[in-house]
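Sanity check

After download, print the first record. It should look like this:
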Amino acid sequence: MAATKNECIICSEHCPLDQSLDNSLPCHCTQNCTTADTCNKTHHPLYDGTVKRVIYGICAPAVLQPFLKHALANMPPDIKIITLIANSTLQAETMRGEIESMKAVDAADPKGVFTSKLIYQQIVFARNTEERECSHVGVRRILKKLSTEDDTLPPSIAQKCICVNGKRNTTCPRCKYLALRKNLESWLKRATDLHYIYMEYTGETLATLPSESTPSPSFYRACQNLLRNYNTLYDHQICHLDLHAANLTWNRDTSGNLAFKFIDFGFNRVYDQREKLCDKCPDCAAVDVTKLFMRICRVTKNPLRPWHPVEYPMFHACVTLLLSPLLVPDTVWNLTNHVAKVKQITLLDLATVPERDMVDLGSVDDATTAFLARCPLRHAVYGTPCARAALQHEAYNLLKKIPQTYCNIRQHLPLIWGRVCAIVGAEISRVHFAPDGRGQGIHLPDPVLCEGGEALTHTSEYSKIFDVFRTQFYFCQELDLRTVEREFDTFSLAAMILYKISPQDVHLRAIVHSQLMCCTSFEKNRTKLSDAVADIELRLQSMSCT
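Expected structure tokens:
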């Protein structure tokens, strides 16, 4: 149903986003305003994501309003809703995977008990003139909300930019606000298909949850349900793969009981036209998401992410140190040298070795050092300095960051590091050395090598070793992505629970460490979530008796 030229869109004076055809569609903002309530911009927080723009409350072009009203007909009037808008012209495959995930999650949790319920979604196509004009009205309403001179703006955005020399800063609220406005303005200038998605607002993010000062049965039960609910999703072939404090929300019912919900399943299914074709999708293929993280996180350049399994940055550091001697043309690096280097780095105590000693350990031989120090390119062409000489140094700096980032699981780091070195070292021994012990060289183009610590991620050698590593680390017979993805999420869940556990709560901390953080066998991995649920139940029974 499209708005006709004679159809007047009545914009409410009470809400900066309201543009109802008949002034009867409540905005469903964070304050549950009705069409008659005064509603200002602080009721509509904004989030400018990598793919989606998120507005708290309803912002619906007239063409979608009849369908959205129908979808809301049987829902409570005080429900809070968020509007997600994505550029479907540029992000068609990304959004396709996310919508498939939303539908699968809706089937697994139809009542929205532990996930954000999908209410309605539709693409407004730019090639349809009436739809496009109708959608543009909606975007203009958001831009009106984004006016930079307004008394109803949140103080962090209304104040002048605090950035140095006028350069935009990704951490500055004002700069992020201006970037969001720029994104939306671009939609009005080009023929852009916009994907509108309406979902139930599920509560505050985990980062805002006050840490428990003492062990609480409510927190125990919430953690138990969190693990149990994840198992339900996994039984429906759903993994999350981006679980962190912003993608877990919390709320309390009228009795004060705590409950968690999962949101934003954008990495559950990712498609890429650059990957090989598959039978189910003629135009693109599903991406191995846990491998994708090794390409996009740039672990030597960006801060580590404590919700990602620690074995991933450990793998990157280990494979970099062990493969770098094989980058030298006509290398004389042999199997004896390699075995000695594996033993040397395995014995590293990441928490105590001084940085100077780590860098010294990184020097392999004079030939490698000399090769990495020479750059034949003129980097004025590429605009960035050559980083090849820092390749090994960056690997050791990465190892130095691990104990700081993963301080909550410090006791597990030596064992995990030892397993990483053993698996990676053995695979490189098997593949990259001839029967007589000579090393098989690896060629990297100069521009790639100049990236330094990230250079090896572009090679097939790195990718193949990573496949073997994940298979063996999780005790699979062959590469089983379902198991790999479950283990990825299990680590993230454990990290989030540890993030909020009371320091005095030794019992729940022990359950997380002994069950969720252990990786000792394929069978143990398969049951660790349900084992943790059972242990929490025993602890709850013990608490009720005291």
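If your output differs, re-run the checksum step. Summary of this record's structure: The longest strand covers residues 81-87.
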